[in-house]
Amino acid sequence: MPCFKQPKHFQSLLLLHWPLSYLGIFWILQPLAIYLLFTSWWPLPALYFAWFLLDWKTPEQGGRRSAWVRNWCAWTHIRDYFPISILKTKDLSPEHNYLMGVHPHGLLTFGAFCNFCTEATGFSKIFPGITPHLATLSWFFKIPFIRDYLMAKGVCSVSQPAIEYLLSHDTGNLVGIVVGGVGEALQSVPNTTRLILQKRKGFVRMALQHGAHLVPTYTFGETEVYDQVLFHKDSFMYKFQSYFRQILGFYFCIFYGRGFRQGSTGLLPYPLPIVTVVGEPLPLPKIEKPSQEMVDKYHALYMKALTKLFDQHKTQYGCPETQKLLFL
At the N or C end, where does the chain have fewer CB atoms within 10 A? Predict the structure, then answer.
């Protein structure tokens, strides 16, 4: 278990402002809204559900972000707990659109959430004129209240129509895709740098179709904040995890971190630094129907750029000189 110092903030404050706690609140709103349908307050949920149906396509048409939500002070407490920061290596011109690879997934993607879904680390000041969007599972946007919370933070659906809309309307859009997906969560173990990328080429094809620049990013420390229990592929638990993913779209991971008392075990993450390094954009030509050879070419260039980014910063952020990225 990694060593850590006692955080400055009370753990209860962290739990109060934890993003999953907010999601929990919005989950509670759904049965409450249904209950209100059978009371004298029924017009309120009825109006919301009517609007929900009329607003169905908004998540695939740019969403509805809120500067107020992105600037909640809650996010600064999360930032300071680890702490979380972002490092710019090159400017991003507002005259282009960008497709950003987010690596690694980690267990809860703290770095990408804090850096791209909030203003806690000052994204808008670091990258003026750029509007960040982080793509996540599409079915989240079919759930009342949850969809509105996610859209307010600039989160978008990972569906093809949603991403294509952002890449083809206006400029200055930065769409982040966690390329390794939920499968990479099972690779989230401290002191490892395994990425599921070797056969993930759809994002490159989409970037070529829209002439979007590819931006590699790597979040150092993302896989260090939790320990995870791994299971053999032949075990019952691994099969259960796979079945769970087939049903809900993500793995049921068993992980642990620190507890409320120093030296204890619990579900709080270890307060270790998380740094997202945003690399130099890779310009791509606009090709409506790119060949497989063209996709393979730019996919290889992207992996090379990501490897270079990792190697240039690994020793600065706690990785040994001998550490290498492993593409699965």
Answer: N
pTM: 0.88
Q: Is it the case that residue 285 has pLDDT exceeding 80?
A: yes
- What tens digit of pLDDT does each residue of 84-95 get? 999 999 999 999
* H-helix segments, 87-171: 110-116, 123-126, 146-152, 160-168
Q: Which CATH class is domain 59-223+269-327?
A: alpha beta
Domain span(s) for CATH 3.40.1130 in the chain? 59-223+269-327
For residues 133 and 153, give the distance between their C-alpha atoms in angstroms, rounded to a whole number.
8
Q: What count of residues does the chain have?
A: 328
Using omega within 30 degrees of 0 as the cis cutoff, is the peptide bond preceding 104 cis? yes
Which residues have a Cβ under 8 Å from the Cβ of 134 and sit 6 or more positions away?
102, 112, 113, 116, 117, 154, 155, 156, 176, 178
243 burial level (CB within 10 Å; 0-12, 13-18, 19+): exposed
* Interior/surface letters 198-220, b for 16+ CB within 10 angstroms, e for the rest: eebbebbbbbbbbbbbbbbbbbb
List, in sequence order, every residue forming a beta bridge with 327; answer none if it has no partner.
Answer: 195
**DSSP SS3 for 46:** helix
Q: How many CA atoms lie within 13 A of 184 on its CB side?
A: 25
